[in-house]
Fold these 4 entries.
Entry 1:
Amino acid sequence: PHQLVSLGFFLSRSQRKWEELNLQDCHIGDDGVNILHQCLCGDKANKKEITKLDLCNNNLTGASSHLIGDIISHLQPHALVLQDNKIGSSGATAIANALTNNISLEELWISYDIGQDGARAIAKAISTNKTLKRLLLCGDDTTGVESAMIIVNSLHCNNTITGLGLPVGACDDCVRKEIDKTIMKMYSVKVLYLFQCFQEAQDDVLCEVHSKSFDNGVIDISHRWLPPHQLVSLGFFLSRSHRKWKELNLQWCYIGDDGMNILHQWLCGDKANKQEITKLDLSNNNLTGASSHLIGDIISHLQPHALVLDDNKITNLKNISTAVTATCTVKVLHMNNNNITSHDAVAISDMMSCLEELNITNNKLGDHGAELISKGITNTKTLRALSISGNKVGSSGTTA
């Protein structure tokens, strides 16, 4: 509590606009929310905005509901994360009341075990709210399936929500298929967040229905740790899909080299359907040089137009370079902040013959590496953008 008071004092005196206040897993409880509320909404608080407020996993109950609603009204956040709490129907009702006249909130994460009364309140608020774009109902048991269905059924005529996350994994086959049919009628939904659907996703019919549900062909599972069993389910889903995907976003999923091996088996193995993914984002996944040959194989099979591998520890680019030059489909390659050294410079130079955009900033090329890739720069006829800063390139490398 005393640290919350200090935080609240700091925020109450702050004169700036904050992009995010992240209190995830801080276990502040209802008493902590009360302290936070006094500092953020009390008489001594400065008027301010916080773009994203994350109160995930803080042991909050319905007793905090009116305080949370008041905080929403005062701070006008664009994103509010309340999953993994126990706010119940009273908390959901308070949030719904705050949403009714809210003109700022665009993204809401909430546990779906809010009871049918809470679900009806949320459903009613959504019918009049015109700013909410992403709604994610989170959880992993069956207690909130009916609540989820109430909210889903209220979205038939919604034209603003473009991203929807659902607890499909907690449902039996009949309920899951009913949810899928409802989603397919929602023409506004462009992205269906899958990470709540993985546990029971190994169902051919469900996978086929899901593949029809993504209006613009985007699978976004970013910023979510994916353990091996969920990667297997994702792989199963992709292997059964018969459509062309515009994007597969696994940014910040921390899959590691072992996870990359699982993904490779499903995307490139005997059971995989031939498919294309226009953009593949694997940034910030703890990948190393051990995954290089797998990434090269995935490039050959999926033939993406854009590949993002930022913030990993990848080195030994020979297999990646071979795949890029052999297919000539990858036009955009980002490998910012990896372990790329001068030993990889020849591979980079070769790839420039096909690429239109290359970002290799914040690596370890040095002068020798810069001199080697200069040949690729000289010979390329396609490259339009090259980012190479942060590579400890001195005068000789710059001259080259």
Note: The two ends are 59 Å apart (CA to CA).
Entry 2:
Amino acid sequence: LRWQRRREEEPGGEACAPARLTCGASPARRGRLGSSGGGGMGLLSDPYRRRALARLLLRLHAPLCLACLAGGLGWFLGLAFQPCTLRASMSENAMGSTMVEERFAHPDRALAHARDFAAHKRKARGMPVAWLEKTMWNLGLEVYKQSFSRTLPFPDELRERYMVTGTNVYGILRAPRAASTESLVLSVPCSEGQQNNQAVGLMLALASYFRGQIYWAKDIIFLVNEHDLIGMEAWLEAYHDVNVTEVQSSGMLGRAGAIQAAISLELSSDVITSFDVAVEGLNGQLPNLDLVNLFYAFCQKNGLLCTIQGKLQRSDWDSLPSYLHSLQTLLLMVLKQGSGRPQGDHGLFLRYHIEAITVRGINSFRQYKYDMGTVGKTLEGMFRKLNNLLERLHQSYFFYLLPSLSRFVSIGIYMPAFGFLILILVLKALDLWMKLSQCDVDPADQSCDGGPVAVEVRGGGD
């Protein structure tokens, strides 16, 4: 009876159906009744609630952005605090222990090869290709060379040249216990001047020592590349039979198995005080964390000081200087990843899904000195552990940050910091979209460009 009496009193009379009780109601009441039955969609379909939400976001836009900025920066600064990091550990069972007996004891042979290489390098005024081929052949390796040339889009910084030509020399040690299906790489860049002479000498001494061992299950490639990154890219493209950078190459005459891992060695002194590891590759790519942990484990075993970003790890983690030290190391890694430049020849291996790092011997003012024998034992232990791999490194992390070599920050911990910073862009985009939508509905709004001008024009027309 109440509904019948109300239908007779409201304008429209019989035109109002029972399902349309709001035909004679006010616009605000119709909006409330229409949105109450829509559930969550009422907030988007109701123009009144949408405008209220827009006004709320426009009013709180600046405070929300500041809160997200503070949250993102605060989260990122907390990553360098040790309780927020994870302890580095080996995930690959085949490399879970350093219980191998390193027997490399030929540092004098490494220094002799380094002196001969330096002498022939000065005589040839460049890379002594013929001497390297002869020496590797005498060591019992399969020796090959690869000529390449690259036209640069801009002249280089040193000689202002557009055409770069060079030769890569590499020797292959075939595995005596397996077919040539898998391989490892030890590479040394042939730099100008007196740099890396000791690295070439140590590589040749290791090749001679490895030749006499019978436990190798993977081929080992000893590579000396010219012109650093250009020569390395030319060798990798020829090895995998691709042409990405349009390098003109003579082709690859000898190949080993699929490359599982690679280590790039850089030494410029007969003795070193520490080992520095570079992990940042092309476009910020990183190697599997197990390879970094393997390097750290053998440095600890042989008593070598190891650093990352040139920073030695501190033991007093609960002090302010230690926190600032870890934060600086973390920021340096983030900046180098953001630059996109590879921090060594290893960075080009990563784009071919080959795990690789660059190891640099540093001779600084520290009192502890290590000879070629200790460095050779460290590399021998790493290669013997990589020789045990049954598959590619995949069990550990590929996305991480390193405040030190013994601690790391996984992607699940540092991504919320970047999420807060990205949320600022989302809020700014919503703010601009709502302002544009408001200008389309009400061009005379003071927040729209040209709003007051449009009002003056309409007033003058009257």
Note: DSSP finds 14 helices and 13 strands in the chain.
Entry 3:
Amino acid sequence: AGVCDTPAWNAVYRIISGDPTGRFSIMTDAHSNDGLLTVVKPIDYETNNKFVLTVAAENQVPLAKGIHHPPQSTASVSITVIDVNESPYFTPNPKSLRQEEGMPAGTMLTTFTAQDPDRYMHQIIRYSKLYDPGNWLKIDSVSGQITTTAILDRESNYMKNNMYNATFLASDNGIPPMSGTGTLQIFLLDINDNAPQVDPVEVEICERPEPNAINITATDADINPNAGPFIFELPSNPSTIRRNWTITRLSGYHAQLSLKIGSLDSGLYKIPIIIADSGNLPMSNTSELLVKVCLCDQSGSCSGVQPIVGAGLGTGAIIAILLCIIILLILVLMFVVWMKRRDKERQAKQLLIDPEDDVRDNILKYDEEGGGEEDQDYDLSQLQQPDTMEPDTIKPVGIRRLDERPIHAEPQYPVRSAAPHPGDIGDFINEGLKAADNDPTAPPYDSLLVFDYEGSGSTAGSLSSLNSSSSGGEQDYDYLNDWGPRFKKLADMYGGGDD
């Protein structure tokens, strides 16, 4: 083993002064044998911004006898704390209040402020609301004063065990800005602000009840001493109530409603019951008990009857049904109007084109022979050459449309020259098509174009001039043998000499 691995080489470090609260610790690095100083408890610039520690170092094993050296050596370590921005904090947190419920909006409750631990930075703190489930409170952003914006109700669903919790935020303007939260707990004291109610609100009895009594209970949203014991009684008006019914208090929370007469007709009866609580300034309320009298079976249960709830449609349901019917009628009327308007548009489009001239999507029948060509109105003059037709029957040269009569003079489309040319027909058709595309009188849909010009004849004359003995005896036609098999017949006719 090397020297570095022996206990005699390993150093042990200790802090012997300057850290009375034990905020620092020092240990030995196993590889370099250096001392590592660490922070083990929080240090605060505002409490102590500088520490001077005295550190001692000694061998892991005592020095050998006879060596005249001190067993340890010491050194001073100076630590300077740098100030950083810290979060403001509320005191106390949480803050508790006890208030009576029912305070009006705008009531000042308390002032909830935060402290900034950075005493030397002189920062500004602003307050805001972070959590307020009932939206009952507001806080002044500068002073931290908290006031109510609504009536605090102990019976609200936002309350838990009579306690209302709200959270507020305090933020400073440091770099970077820091913030802290504080919770305000408001314990609401109950006041007598709720009247008692009868429970249940609906009961069923037989026409001849046995026993002829109904047990009821009083409930109150308030708590003692603003709730029970309760007082039960029947009103004097209408007089039939006390004549037919009587109520007996069984306890501070329960009573029994009994029928005085022997029987009742089937139907629904509303029995008003006055219930008063025991609070300071007692509150009373007249609750209606809905009693359903029905025919009972042998077991004493109502038979063949529907539940009381839903016996009829409410006003809201009737209004909703009527609105649905009105909307449906409006939709039907709009559909009818739209159908009529579409029919009118179709008729207007049909008037623009003569059905006989409209060539789009028409059915042409080819299986009817008719009574002969003399009964058909065909214009056979288009199959004749212009040279053989009468001058007054020759139509204007060019392309004629059958689907529209032009409102001005018909444009003159290109005329094919009389001189033969290999591309004469193709050029003539292309020029005619281009002229038809640029025609301002063309309708905005596909139409039929009739090319009724066949040319002015050929300068070659009749093919009868090809007779072998009529002319051309002095012409030498032997070169036809060099033109290939297509001209073999002509070569035999004219190239054979006297034969």
Note: Residues 315-351 form the longest helix (37 residues).
Entry 4:
Amino acid sequence: MSMRYSRAVVLLMLIGLTVMTVNIFELRYLVGQLREQSIKSVNERLSEAVVEQKAKEAPVVWFHAKNIETGYLDHPIKVFKRAGYVIKKDFPKKWDVLWSHEYPFTETKVYNMVKQISPHQKINKFPGTGFITNKASLATSGFPFTPKAYKIPQDKDKLLHDAKLKPDQLYVQKSNAHRGIFIRKIGQMDLASKSNKVFVQEYVMDPLLIDGRKFDIGIYTVMTSVSPLRVYVYDEEALLRFCPKDYLPLDVTNTRQYVVADDYTPTWEIPSLKKMYTDGQFSHKQSLNSFLKRKGFNYKKLWADINEAIVQVYLNKRAEILATSRRYKSTRNFFEMVRFDFVVDSKMNIWLMEVNMSPNLSSAVHPPNKLLYEQVMYNLLSLVGIASLTPRTLVDNSPDEEIMKIGLRDIQVGYDLCSSEQCSSCKIEKCEICLQCRQQHQTEFLNDAFLEHVHRRNFRRVFPRPMTQDKANDDSINYNMMPNDVLMQRWFMLKCQDDASWCN
């Protein structure tokens, strides 16, 4: 009996010990789980706090546009997001960049905000550039590279006189608001309009054709400063757009033979360009260059003529842009990218057709153009200094960070001149390039020019005009320019003498 009792006690003790051991392991497991959950919860709260803090520090881009939900600004929005920006709409209280699809300076609410702009804020439109993008203003400016145009009704008599001298000439009637273009003989034109926004323009009758198609060339162009004037073109690429139908035999009632519309035929569907663009991975521009070279055309002159035409437009309209921009505290807050559209005739003459204020950056109709639009955007943000490897609101840049990016030694040039006796007292005009003789606003625009050059990526300067090291001397400066332009040109000239990469 005692033996059985003892065995029972031992068995109960073993069972109890087993249960206790299991409970201990379960307790440890639960403690571990609680610890993991606690750590995970703390980490999640820390992550949320970090994200929230980053959101507070991130730069803000304000997109001001109509019907933005339709997606036509998706590529610009994506590029800004990749650059670390927070996207805002509907008049945010704080913003670093205003990206406006429309001209913002005529909207009262936007205008009042822009009038109070802070030094760190940037706007993608330049006051006064409507004098360039306005179709009637551009066409009737008398440039040798725009088809001759006549304002209606002011120039009606002159138009009729000239038309008699060119009985075979065809014309197009245009306005700023109307996009429809039809070729007409002068007798078929409606010249009764009393609107000063209507004009009649000679039609380029012998366009260069590729595989029987008429086409135009779009050049993305950026003005970053008006005084001094600085203009860049996107040199890596151009937008080629072909008419959907063969040009010949010409039927003036079929606009698809001679008008480039949104449903244009792209480069990759043109037989003579397709292989280079698709298989060879050439750009639009490189594909065109290769074709022109095979046909014996001087493609380098083509691009030089285009760049010079762009420069002439800005020089011609600069006074009006300056007059308009004087309403604002500073023009350093503004930059603008437009697209110059050219037609080339059979003799390789260029003809500027229009300048688009807000060029299309949507690949909805032509998906392969996505890369082109996003690269143009990224290069633009880099050029104007609003894409950063350490993105945060631009207002928080410390003086030390600004000096890290650019210091006075970075913009110093003309060492022999600036160390001479005559510049110690700033006796001659050339000495204004030197630190001791410069004004503060001159140092500021030299800083801007330096940073633009360093960050330009695939953009290239067309004004101040490029030069070679051999020609980087005072003889290449046009002293009839505005004083700031003379200083800017001399600075680039001296930088070019020391380093060829600054020549263009």
Note: The first helix runs from residue 2 to 57.
